[in-house]
């Protein structure tokens, strides 16, 4: 990693380009008009094959065109992609000091000279002001920005790293390579050599220092006025109809989230994809190529028509989920019974209303985001319904995400308020969940509980009217696989969910339901149906035994139970022949083993259902036939009225739907489906499939519709093994072997996607190892699929979903084992 | 087609010759000893350029299998047979229309696991003489093609009558001297001899100007990788040998290999460092492109192969 490789440190060799993963033929020098003269720019140009248009990429300081490698490589087929090195930067000419306005003029001149046809500008860091300054003078069709700024947001100080660099510009930027090296260290080690190569000597770094010196901080700085025009130019994009994509690294110490907020305020039409884990050099850290490609395709080719979530429009008869508690507000029967106490309908309503009033008084506006830091129970019901009555959006994340996961979740959602108990607020502050949010203590909002003398409930405070389209919640998925995804729900969708649950499962106002699944109690007040949490630790459903469960049912008169697989198992195990008759038992968290459904049916004599669904669309099926033993897969019943399920070939969600009996990806649509993912444009576009003028959610599961219309679930898409002879859901191998051997079985793919071979792991204690040859032979004989290796060992299980085997981890372990050493 | 097969006395060479004869090609086998195949023998030494040219005269195609495989041969012999011999074949092939050169997957061995790889560059330059010479020969063939040329790298070929792989394993197991590195857990591709021969015949048929296969090396396997332990068990079961090989740690196996190959008096040490390394790490391949380009896929497979092997052992007790 030293100079020695270069005979001439001003020009990389073909070997350098190859080592940096860049096609050497992309590199050339061009003369760019600069004032009265010209300056020689180094550019990386994928050439004229791009039919869609040209993307000109502008780096920041102290980097160079290399940072756009992913875009050059990924989009070079459809687009001509040009990454320029600005004057004095990268491999361009060292031509003396440049002010922002000169850099803008040079970029404009370059684009005018080199680009014909549609132009897209992409920029990073301080390339952003240069590109957005140029955008005012060019016919730009779209803009892609990554961690940048066009203005210093109100109340934000100069980023500390920049301030540090400025305070000793000469030392940090020019005489030493501190700034260059510090920046290169913000990304993966593999990029360091390329990032540092153009800036090896002090003479080659002078522009780095000049760039920092030119950052306008106060009126009177040379580029202060120019930056103001840049800010205006960026603000004008929306009016000019120019779409903007913001790709944002959430852990950038320089351009942090307040800069994102500033950009969004100036370009409210922008699409955002925020990578919670990425830092400053996001174009190198994240695979942005495919996202930018899809986004541009959509801007340039699609009809831009907003597709409704469902054909069945619900706007006309919209009844918000807050309606039921208002209807029942005078009733003194129980609305909630739990280990933390009980609430009558009247108490629940009054407390929620009081919270709503106080939230509004505290300044909460409709659409403001409130992080729910309230433990499940009566307080959660009051806080959530209070927030909804106030028109706020609740932001919910499972505490199982852990401190880091929660911090990501709340920062990504940019919550305005934290609502919790003094303890949870203290923890949230200590862990810096949302440094900019105001904390609201639930206890203080409720004040001393003396309902009838409290004027605030009766003093008229204007509460907003909720509409179908109002955002109601941002719910983070459990994050069992990959990072948690923030799912946006509108009030329309929540109302539709309430209605479909009521109809499909025939819930009535008098009998309640018992839930071992804490978040489900939110359905109770929405439905106007009493809900019960059994005694014990709410967060440990596996500890719910038969006695506690039966007591909860008896005490509340509930005739319906909503159980997680873990609690269902414990109830079955501890029943000892006793029974607790119920009308309906719902097992949540498919796939539910048919055997467990049958056992729960014996204990409760109930209609046992295992409806299928996901955070994004719950429930999707009626869950009938849960106890039917299938040779392969789990029956989840038929899609609920109003829901549409389509099966498409694996990996091709746009392809024509498959007929009954053929397996593929499960796509679903319903009016109670998520609105989208919050600030995850890429995730959203990847999992939202437009078909037949409907918006479908790509479930991430595979399965089939049988000839009776039942949806048979065959596991997760990521557990599909892609062999050379085609993809195969792992359950196809696992289930017959599990039945044959009466042991836990997991099948995982070894090797590269599309050429995988299969390893079968039988559950056993001890380290993962080859099974003995006798067992190996029996397994090979017991399945029709070619099995490369038979192993024995423990199956890693997700602690949050005790039934889910972490096949991704197992595949890594098995691959390592079978690689030898 | 008139086809010259060099190295017809090896199991694979003989099987290739037999398959070609069976489908009606006119086949000459060129080697020092009678091939035992159904083809006509033309005896001669591959290091003799004139002899090679004479054998190849008026042939339509050459399949070049002749090679020195002995693990402890002198480099001079390795180079003479594997490199110079190939150069002679290249010269002789100028009068033919096609050349199929048989190489070895080990020419791309990088001392690390290969899982689902394609044919990587033949850049082996390590201490193993056989592999180094085969790598040079393959580069020679692909860099200076005389006629349309396809290179096939069959992976661990075995079958009834095989003295190389099967013979050594069985004799060592009978002597109680068979050991497995790390319980034989590395996933390894192998090829039943009839399938490997069919792939070579398919390569010959595909070897026409402009074909996708021409000018490239293709790894050929049974596309059914298994842990080394499973393969050894199946072979020993077929040979009716009752032996459970002991396991030794892989690094120890490599170390033993280096010591044994340096000190072993004969030409066939029971273990070499290279063999120990190769058997300690996974090497199996993505066969999709090979099968598409050659329009071939294994028709016998491992399990039927082991049945045939058992029948052969039973008949040749």
Structure description:
The complex is a heterodimer of chains A (about 800) and B (about 325). By secondary structure, chain A is α/β, with parallel strands linked by helices. Chain A is about 35% helix and about 20% strand. Chain A contains 29 helices and 34 strands. In chain A, β26 (about 690) and β27 form a beta hairpin. In chain A, about 55% of the residues are buried. Chain B has about 325 residues and is of the alpha/beta class. Chain B has a domain at about 1-160 and about 190-220 and about 285-300: Rossmann fold (3-Layer(aba) Sandwich). Chain B has 11 helices and 15 strands. Chain B has helices at about 10-20, 50-55, 75-90, 130-145, 165-175, 195-205, 230-240, 250-265, 275-280, 290-295, 300-315, and strands at about 1-5, 25-30, 40-45, 60-65, 100, 115, 150-155, 155-160, 180, 185-190, 190, 215-220, 225, 245-250, 285. In chain B, strands 3-2-1-4-5-7-12 form a 7-stranded parallel sheet, sandwiched between helices. A two-stranded parallel ribbon of chain B has the order 6-15. In chain B, strands 8-11 form a two-stranded parallel ribbon. In chain B, α8 (about 250-265) runs antiparallel to α9 (about 275-280). The model of chain B has no long low-confidence stretch (mean pLDDT about 90). Chains A and B meet through β33 and α29 of A and β13 and α7 of B.
């Amino acid at each position: 990693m030293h100079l020695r490789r270069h005979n001439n440190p001003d020009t990389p060799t073909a070997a350098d380009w190859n080592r940096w993963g860049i096609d050497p033929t992309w590199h050339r020098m061009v003369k760019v008009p600069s004032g009265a003269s010209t300056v020689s720019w180094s550019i990386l140009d994928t050439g004229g094959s791009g039919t869609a248009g040209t993307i000109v990429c502008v780096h920041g300081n102290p980097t160079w065109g290399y940072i756009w490698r992913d875009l050059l490589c990924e989009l070079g087929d459809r687009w001509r992609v040009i990454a320029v090195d600005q004057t004095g930067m990268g491999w361009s000419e060292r031509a003396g000091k440049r002010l922002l306005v000169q850099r803008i003029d040079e970029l404009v001149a370059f684009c005018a000279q080199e680009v014909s046809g549609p132009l897209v500008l992409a920029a990073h860091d301080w390339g952003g002001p240069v590109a957005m300054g140029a955008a005012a003078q060019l016919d730009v069709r779209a803009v892609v920005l990554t961690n940048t700024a066009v203005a210093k947001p109100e109340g934000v100080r100069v980023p500390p790293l920049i301030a540090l660099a400025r305070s000793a510009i000469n030392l940090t930027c020019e005489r030493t390579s501190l700034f260059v090296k510090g920046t290169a260290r913000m990304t993966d080690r593999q990029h360091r050599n390329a990032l540092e190569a153009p800036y090896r000597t002090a003479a080659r770094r002078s522009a780095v220092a000049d760039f920092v010196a030119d950052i306008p901080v106060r009126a009177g700085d040379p580029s202060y006025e120019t930056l103001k025009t840049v800010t205006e130019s960026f603000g004008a994009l929306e009016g000019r109809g120019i779409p903007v994509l913001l790709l944002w690294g959430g852990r950038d110490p320089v351009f942090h989230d307040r800069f994102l907020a500033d950009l969004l305020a100036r370009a409210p039409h922008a699409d955002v994809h925020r990578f919670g884990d990425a830092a400053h050099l996001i174009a190198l850290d994240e695979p942005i190529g495919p996202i930018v490609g899809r986004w541009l395709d959509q801007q340039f080719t699609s009809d831009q028509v907003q597709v409704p979530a469902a054909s069945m429009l619900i706007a006309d008869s919209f009844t918000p989920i807050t309606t039921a508690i208002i209807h029942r507000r005078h009733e003194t029967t129980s609305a909630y019974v739990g280990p933390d106490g009980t609430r009558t309908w009247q108490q629940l309503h009054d407390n929620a209303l009081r919270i709503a009033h106080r939230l509004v008084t505290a300044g909460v506006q409709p659409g403001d985001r409130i992080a729910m830091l309230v433990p499940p129970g009566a307080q959660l019901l009051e806080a959530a319904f209070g927030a909804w009555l106030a028109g706020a959006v609740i932001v919910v994340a499972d505490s199982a995400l852990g401190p880091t996961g929660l911090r990501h979740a709340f920062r990504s959602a940019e919550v305005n308020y934290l609502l919790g108990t003094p303890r949870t607020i203290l923890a949230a502050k200590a862990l810096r969940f949302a440094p900019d949010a105001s904390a609201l203590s639930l206890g203080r909002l409720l004040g001393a509980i003396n309902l009838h003398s409290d004027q605030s409930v009766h003093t008229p405070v204007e509460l907003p009217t909720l509409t179908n389209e109002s955002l109601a919640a941002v719910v983070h998925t459990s994050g069992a696989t990959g990072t948690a995804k923030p799912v946006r729900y509108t009030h329309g969708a929540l109302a539709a969910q309430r209605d479909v649950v009521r109809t499909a499962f025939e819930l009535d106002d008098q009998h309640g339901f018992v839930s071992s699944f804490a978040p489900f109690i939110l359905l109770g007040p929405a439905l106007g149906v009493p809900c019960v949490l059994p005694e014990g630790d709410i967060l440990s459903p596996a500890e719910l035994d038969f006695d506690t469960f039966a007591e909860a049912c008896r005490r509340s008169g509930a005739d319906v139970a909503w159980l997680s697989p873990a609690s269902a198992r414990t109830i079955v195990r501890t029943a000892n022949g006793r029974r607790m008759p119920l009308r309906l038992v719902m097992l949540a968290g498919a796939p539910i083993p048919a055997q467990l459904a049958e056992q729960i049916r014996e204990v409760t004599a109930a209609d046992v259902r295992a409806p299928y669904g996901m955070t994004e669309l719950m429930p999707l099926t009626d869950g009938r036939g849960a106890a039917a033993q299938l040779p392969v897969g789990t029956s989840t019943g038929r899609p609920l009225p109003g829901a549409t399920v389509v099966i498409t070939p694996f990996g091709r969600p746009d392809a024509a739907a498959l007929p009954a009996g053929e397996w593929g990806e499960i796509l679903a649509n319903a009016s109670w489906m998520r609105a989208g993912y919050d600030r995850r444009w890429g995730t959203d576009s990847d999992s939202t499939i437009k078909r037949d003028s409907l918006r479908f959610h790509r479930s991430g599961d595979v399965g089939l519709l049988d000839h009776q219309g039942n949806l048979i679930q065959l596991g997760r898409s990521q557990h599909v093994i892609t062999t050379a002879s085609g993809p195969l859901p792992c359950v196809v191998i696992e289930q017959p072997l599990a039945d044959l051997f009466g042991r836990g079985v997991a099948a995982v793919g070894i090797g590269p996607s599309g050429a995988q071979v299969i390893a079968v792991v039988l559950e056993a204690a001890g380290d993962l190892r080859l099974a003995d040859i006798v067992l190996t032979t029996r397994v090979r004989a017991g399945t029709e699929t070619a099995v490369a290796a038979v192993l024995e060992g423990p199956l890693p299980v997700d602690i949050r979903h005790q039934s889910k085997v972490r096949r991704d981890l197992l595949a890594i372990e098995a691959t390592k084992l079978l690689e030898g050493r | 087609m008139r086809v010259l097969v060099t190295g017809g006395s090896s199991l694979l060479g003989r099987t290739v010759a037999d398959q070609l004869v069976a489908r009606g090609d006119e086949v000459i086998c060129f080697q020092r000893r009678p091939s035992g195949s159904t083809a006509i023998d033309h005896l001669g030494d591959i290091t003799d350029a004139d002899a090679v040219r004479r054998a190849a005269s008026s042939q339509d195609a050459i399949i070049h299998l002749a090679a020195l495989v002995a693990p402890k041969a002198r480099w001079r012999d390795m180079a003479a047979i594997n490199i110079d011999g190939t150069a002679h074949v290249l010269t002789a092939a100028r009068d033919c229309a096609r050349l199929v050169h048989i190489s070895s997957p080990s020419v791309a061995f990088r001392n690390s696991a290969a899982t689902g790889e394609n044919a990587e560059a033949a850049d082996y330059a390590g201490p193993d003489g056989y592999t180094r010479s085969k790598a040079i020969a393959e580069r020679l063939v692909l860099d200076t093609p005389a006629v349309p040329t396809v290179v096939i790298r069959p992976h661990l070929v075995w079958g009834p009558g095989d003295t190389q792989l099967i013979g050594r394993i069985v004799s060592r197991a009978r002597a109680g001297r068979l050991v497995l590195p790390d319980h034989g857990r590395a996933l390894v591709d192998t090829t039943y001899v009839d399938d490997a021969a069919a792939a070579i015949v398919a390569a010959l048929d595909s070897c026409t100007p402009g074909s996708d296969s021409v000018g490239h090396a293709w790894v050929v396997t049974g596309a059914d990788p298994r842990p080394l332990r499973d393969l050894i068990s199946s072979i020993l079961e077929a040979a009716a040998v009752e032996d459970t090989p002991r396991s030794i740690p892989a690094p120890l196996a490599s170390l033993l290999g280096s010591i044994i190959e340096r000190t072993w008096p004969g030409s066939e040490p029971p273990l070499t460092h290279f063999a120990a390394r190769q058997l300690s790490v996974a090497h199996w391949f993505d066969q999709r492109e090979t099968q598409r380009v050659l329009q071939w896929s294994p028709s016998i497979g491992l399990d039927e192969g082991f049945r045939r092997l058992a029948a052969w052992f039973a008949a040749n007790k």
